[in-house]
Design a protein that fits this description.
Elements lengths: L1 H43 L8 E2 L3 H15 L3 E8 L2 H8 L1 H18 L5 E4 L4 E7 L6 H17 L10 E7 L6 H20 L6 E2 L1
Parallel strand pairs: 1-3, 5-6
Antiparallel strand pairs: 2-4, 2-5, 3-4
Length: about 210
Amino acid sequence: MVLGLVALLALLNTHLISKRHEIRRVREELISRTIQHELVRQQSFTDPLTEIYNRHSLEDVAGRFISHARRLKKPLTLMLIDVDRFKEVNTRFGHLTGDVVLADTAALLKNSVRGSDAVFRYGGDEFLVILADTSSADADNVVERIRSSLLEWNRAGHLAGLELSLSIGVSEWSDGKTLDELLDSADRHMYTAKADRKVGKAKSIGV
């Protein structure tokens, strides 16, 4: 009788241990799948060259920024940035150097903003920055940080005989303005800045 009970308890213990191992295995598999899913999601939202947000992610990320600004009645500013004479960079120095310029520009922009802001590769040689809780007037401080960092980059002589410059268009969100309207406004200001640079004006930002 006693031996039978001991055997039964041993069998139950073995069963419980087996179940615990099975539960642990299932839990680890679920965690692994969740991590892989998140990595895939992040990769789909990330530009592989510059390691910043890609254009595909813009609607989702910008939507969250706009919702935050609307809910808390906070300012929000968008900056559209174009690398001037990028075709000339590719022609004179090659596409590998062009890739380095794009990656360095992305890093420069990220280092010029806060962790609460967002930086995107918007097109081939265009970048976009969303500045949370920031008016267009306050965005001037960000522009100055970008200019200062770009000056240091040029002083390092990365492009022999050619200084890199950026044209920047700024647009401030107001309640009721759509993302497309915000982008159109920033785009117009950016091309105004580019035109000003071509005619020798010291202006690189339009507000």
